[in-house]
Amino acid sequence: MSVDTETIQKEIVKLSPDTLVELYILDASDIDGDVVYFHAGTNNNLQPITFKGDIYQPLPVEVEGFVFNGKGEMPRPKVKVANLDGGISALCLAYQDMIGTKFIRRRTFARFLDGGDRENDLAQLPDDVFYVERKVSETKEVVEFELSSPLDVDGVMLPRRQFMTNQCGWKYRSAECSFAGDYLVADDTDAAMTGTNRGEWNELAQYNTNDFVWRYVRGRRFYYLALIDNIVGELMRPPRAGIWKQEVCSKRLTGCKLRYGQNAEYPFGGFPAIRKANG
């Protein structure tokens, strides 16, 4: 990424530099999710902020631990994000607690924002890039994540694919999974799901209880069952918690059997024949 180092450094060394703005990007595209742009709404700024053409919505967030300690240890920042209307919980449910999601902290000065008095897309500090390592806690008010650096290899396993007996390692409806039925089957507990197929999600359409839709994300379809009536508009888009229930696989052999039949040859991504060694 190109950065206008000279301009940003000149602003930093001023006796009275402009307001430093922190912007955040939660990029779940690598795990088939969306990209969310937001800022903390500090300095009573509760309006959207635009930088590089991207619109950052106000969303209360607290971050800590981005600083390297000089002892050779990689930082493990903590991020607390407001769980407004269950939005973050919905993302956690849809994308396995957001593990592996890229988290970017982007910093620039207010004058360099789109529409600022010295608008400059390149005038910013280098991005801080981390990945969601684990979900620390989740309540109705806030969800906390622990992040890890891309350079932090502590705990990386070789081989990278773990041998699990009754846990499939494939992404549901991926090429490895190969299931492509245009209908609902079950949820992650193998509870059956049925409904009326309304096709691809359309923010202009209205949906009611037991309608189901799909969204196409990075080569795969994701299916969602409506839980309430009168669903319409982008603010009610799946996977919004309390409005939609996602059709997912339990990742067990029972999930394969529900989708392929009791006596089929399953594309199961686990290793049911292995057993834990004693000793």
Write a structural description.
- By secondary structure, the chain is mostly beta strands.
- It has a domain at 5-148.
- The protein contains 3 helices and 13 strands, in the order αββββββαβββββββα.
- A 9-stranded mixed beta sheet has the order 3-4-2-1-7-8-9-6-5, with no helix packed on it. Strands 10-11-12-13 form a 4-stranded mixed beta sheet, with no helix packed on it.
- The longest helix has 8 residues, at 5-12.
- It is elongated and about 75 Å long.
- The protein starts with a helix and ends in a 19-residue tail after the last helix.
Itemize the secondary structure elements and their pairings.
Elements: H1 5-12, E1 20-27, E2 35-39, E3 49-51, E4 54-58, E5 61-64, E6 78-82, H2 87-94, E7 102-109, E8 128-138, E9 142-148, E10 196-200, E11 211-217, E12 220-226, E13 244-247, H3 253-260
Parallel strand pairs: 2-4, 10-11
Antiparallel strand pairs: 1-2, 1-7, 3-4, 5-6, 6-9, 7-8, 8-9, 11-12, 12-13
Major sheet: size, sense and barrel closure?
9 strands, mixed
Mean pLDDT: 83
Termini separation comes to 51 Å
Shape: elongated
Q: What's the β-strand tally?
A: 13
Q: What would you call the quaternary organization?
A: single chain
Poorly predicted runs are 155-161
The largest beta-sheet arranges its strands as 3-4-2-1-7-8-9-6-5
Structural class: mainly beta
Give the C-alpha Rg.
22 Å
Tally the helices.
Answer: 3
Strand percentage: 25-35%
Could you spell the SSE succession in H and E letters? HEEEEEEHEEEEEEEH
Helix content: under 10%
